[in-house]
């Protein structure tokens, strides 16, 4: 009986520790009052637009905000090292590469999920844990001067002689989301194999363990062009006056916002099978030991509102999970993209992204 009581006390203590500072009042006025009694809110984010959101939040609530824009890997490493050292520097993060975040920051208890009042009211429950701030699409683009219509029928077209030396992609070695996405090609390799048969009328001959890794190998062997920037990919693909322009593989669709200003001849493939590209999430997470937990919760709530999302509303390729936020004018709604893009299973990605990276590096070196 004593052992059972001790076990129950330990469970209760762990629950208290896990939610310390994160219990929130449903009443927004109470949350605002509590937040305004705290200190300077510190935010880490993978998007530069966080500065605009921080400024607007500060003006609205009178809470000072210190926002830091970091790369995906920098943010994960910084939060991980600070938490391990017992340095409670950050209150809230906007972060991508969920498999790495889950493995290094969530499973370790350094970050915790929080669903603010506005998300509870408007955002479907399937996007609550982890809390999806927005989904981002990556597509396959082509030059509209060189091709009067969509040149792609299958993803395997990118491995054919016609596109040898013309496919641009961000290096997987420095792009965690690409590593995650390619694990989905492994998980759904049967679909890739079936599409190869549809496209070429003959079975796929495998040299790798599955069609996903075979596609990766053939893509690299087709003299792929490795890039470090999605901006440079979009500009190179869309530059006018080219005889044999490159095509862009898995770059962010948001770069199409630059088409008018940079006079680009650029469009995305809406015909390619079995998918048009992939999508991934940007997530809101709170530091488990935040110095300003109520301000962090209020900022999370603000970001999920149409007002808080405004810095991201001005371009294609970003999709809020709050239905009160409409898609960018001229862009397709989220449900359209969701049906045509692949994403990935986080747990499968954790287990298999190392296999993808090893295969990539082996193919690139060879």
> CA-to-CA gap between the ends?
64 Å
In CATH, the homologous superfamily of the largest domain goes by the name: Periplasmic binding protein-like II
Portion of residues in helices? 40-55%
Give the overall shape: globular
Which segments are poorly predicted (pLDDT under 50) over 5 or more consecutive residues?
1-25
Sheet-strand content, in percent, reads: 15-25%
Nearest-angstrom radius of gyration?
22 Å
**Quaternary structure annotation:** single chain
Assign the CATH topology of the largest domain: D-Maltodextrin-Binding Protein, domain 2
Task: Tell me the name of the CATH class of the largest domain.
Answer: Alpha Beta
Number of helices: 14
Following the backbone from N to C, one meets helices and strands in this order, namely: HHEHEHEHEHEEHHHEHEHEEHEHH
Q: How many separate domains make up the residues? A: 2
Mean pLDDT: 92
> Based on DSSP secondary structure assignment, what is the total number of beta strands?
11
């Amino acid at each position: 009986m004593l052992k059972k009581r001790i076990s129950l006390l330990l469970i209760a203590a762990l629950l208290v520790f896990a939610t310390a500072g994160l219990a929130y009042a449903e009443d927004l006025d109470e949350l605002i009052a509590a937040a305004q009694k705290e200190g300077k809110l510190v935010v880490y984010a993978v998007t530069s637009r966080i500065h605009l959101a921080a400024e607007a939040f500060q003006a609205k609530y009178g809470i000072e905000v210190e926002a830091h824009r970091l790369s995906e890997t920098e943010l994960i490493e910084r939060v991980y090292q600070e938490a391990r050292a017992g340095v409670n520097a950050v209150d809230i993060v906007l972060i991508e590469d969920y498999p790495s975040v889950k493995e290094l920051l969530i499973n370790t208890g350094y970050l915790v999920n929080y669903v603010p009042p506005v998300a509870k009211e408007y955002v479907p429950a399937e996007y609550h844990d982890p809390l999806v701030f927005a989904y981002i699409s990556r597509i396959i683009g082509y030059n509209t001067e060189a091709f009067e219509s969509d040149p792609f029928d299958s993803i395997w077209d990118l491995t054919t002689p016609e596109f040898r030396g013309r496919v641009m992609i961000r290096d997987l070695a420095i792009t965690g989301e690409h590593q995650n996405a390619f694990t989905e090609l492994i998980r759904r390799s049967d679909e890739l194999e079936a599409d190869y048969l549809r496209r070429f009328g003959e079975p796929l001959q495998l040299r790798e363990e599955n069609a996903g890794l075979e596609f990766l190998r053939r893509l690299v062997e087709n003299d792929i062009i490795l890039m470090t920037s999605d901006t440079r990919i979009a500009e190179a693909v869309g530059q006018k006056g080219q005889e044999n322009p490159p095509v862009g593989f898995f770059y962010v669709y948001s770069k199409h916002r630059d088409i008018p200003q940079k006079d680009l001849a650029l469009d995305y493939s809406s015909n390619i099978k079995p998918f048009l590209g992939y999508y991934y999430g940007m997530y809101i997470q709170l530091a488990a030991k935040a110095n300003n937990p109520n301000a962090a919760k209020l900022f999370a709530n603000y970001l999920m509102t149409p007002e808080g999302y405004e810095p991201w509303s001005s371009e294609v390729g970003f999709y809020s999970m709050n239905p009160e936020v409409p898609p960018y004018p001229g862009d397709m709604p989220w449900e359209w993209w969701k049906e045509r893009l692949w994403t990935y299973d986080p747990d499968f990605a954790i287990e298999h992204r190392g296999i993808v990276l090893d295969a990539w590096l082996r193919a690139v070196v060879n």
